[in-house]
């Protein structure tokens, strides 16, 4: 992997494996380097409020998505066929840095979501950041049409959260709670209000948030203006067909502007990081 942007003498030397101006082969980055490259802003850390005069921490919501050159976010309904080993390393790193992973119910069903696992490689980093052994999974669902017998709900390392609206069916709420999930009301009707969902998670001490989609949920987050950052992998593949883009749903009135803050490359895959301006 090599850094394409931003590049300084220091980063160029590190990525080449030598001093400035020295040539070097592309190499696999250590997990510690990836964690540094994708660190959350300090304002999203609860530790920020522990110093005299420091501001209260604020939630930071980033998305991690993958897209082919022709804009497909999936192939045969799943993202794995357009991913790569490097993409999966970044996927694991982003999860390891997060307090909670926010995901739509349809993605849970299609991708066969399981509980986040504790990773020994990141144990010390999470402990130093005041985090538990693994991030919580927070499933967004209006209908609660979910299989609550799955390990995601019955045997997670930390309890799975289910974000839904106040009008959700009481029997489905009861089924979720019976399975061990924590139901969080984040909307006045059937659906979930994205801004309220972020606030509800922050009130539970979950400030470093990661969403893995799917496209419908990401579109809702974009439309609500609550997405702070997009980590987008551009896969050097073409699929044609009618696969979804990374974000779906009604268009926003005015396009949201983001700025490029980082660009990495490995084996033709581009790993970009954009922040809201």
UniProtKB/TrEMBL annotation:
<dbReference type="InterPro" id="IPR050765">
    <property type="entry name" value="Riboflavin_Biosynth_HTPR"/>
</dbReference>
<dbReference type="InterPro" id="IPR024072">
    <property type="entry name" value="DHFR-like_dom_sf"/>
</dbReference>
<dbReference type="Pfam" id="PF01872">
    <property type="entry name" value="RibD_C"/>
</dbReference>
<protein>
    <submittedName>
        <fullName>Pyrimidine reductase family protein</fullName>
    </submittedName>
</protein>
<keyword id="KW-0521">NADP</keyword>
<dbReference type="GO" id="GO:0009231">
    <property type="term" value="P:riboflavin biosynthetic process"/>
</dbReference>
<keyword id="KW-0560">Oxidoreductase</keyword>
<dbReference type="InterPro" id="IPR002734">
    <property type="entry name" value="RibDG_C"/>
</dbReference>
<comment type="pathway">
    <text>Cofactor biosynthesis; riboflavin biosynthesis.</text>
</comment>
<dbReference type="GO" id="GO:0008703">
    <property type="term" value="F:5-amino-6-(5-phosphoribosylamino)uracil reductase activity"/>
</dbReference>
<feature type="region of interest" description="Disordered">
    <location>
        <begin position="1"/>
        <end position="26"/>
    </location>
</feature>
<feature type="domain" description="Bacterial bifunctional deaminase-reductase C-terminal">
    <location>
        <begin position="59"/>
        <end position="262"/>
    </location>
</feature>
């Amino acid at each position: 992997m090599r850094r394409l942007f931003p590049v300084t003498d220091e980063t160029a030397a590190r990525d080449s494996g030598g001093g400035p101006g020295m040539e070097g082969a592309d190499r696999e980055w250590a997990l510690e380097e990836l964690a540094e490259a994708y660190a959350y802003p300090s304002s999203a850390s609860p530790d920020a409020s522990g110093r005299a005069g420091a501001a209260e921490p604020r939630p930071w919501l980033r998305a991690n998505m993958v897209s082919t050159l022709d804009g497909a976010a999936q192939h045969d309904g799943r993202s794995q066929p357009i991913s790569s080993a490097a993409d999966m390393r970044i996927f694991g790193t982003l999860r390891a840095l997060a307090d909670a992973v926010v995901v739509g119910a349809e993605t849970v069903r299609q991708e066969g979501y399981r509980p986040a696992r504790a990773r020994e490689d990141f144990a010390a980093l999470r402990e130093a950041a005041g985090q538990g052994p693994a991030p919580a999974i927070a499933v967004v669902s209006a209908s609660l049409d979910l299989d609550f017998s799955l390990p995601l709900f019955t045997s997670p390392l930390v309890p799975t959260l289910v974000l839904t609206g106040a009008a959700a069916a009481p029997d489905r709420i009861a089924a979720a709670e019976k399975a061990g999930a924590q139901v969080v009301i984040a909307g006045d009707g059937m659906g979930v209000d994205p801004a309220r969902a972020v606030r509800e998670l922050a009130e539970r001490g979950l400030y470093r948030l990661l969403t893995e989609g799917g496209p419908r949920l990401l579109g809702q987050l974009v439309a609500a203006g609550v997405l702070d950052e997009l980590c987008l992998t551009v896969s050097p593949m073409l699929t044609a067909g009618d696969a979804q883009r990374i974000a779906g749903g009604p268009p926003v009135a005015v396009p949201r502007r983001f700025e490029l803050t980082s660009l990495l490359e490995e084996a033709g895959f581009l790993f970009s990081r954009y922040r809201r301006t």
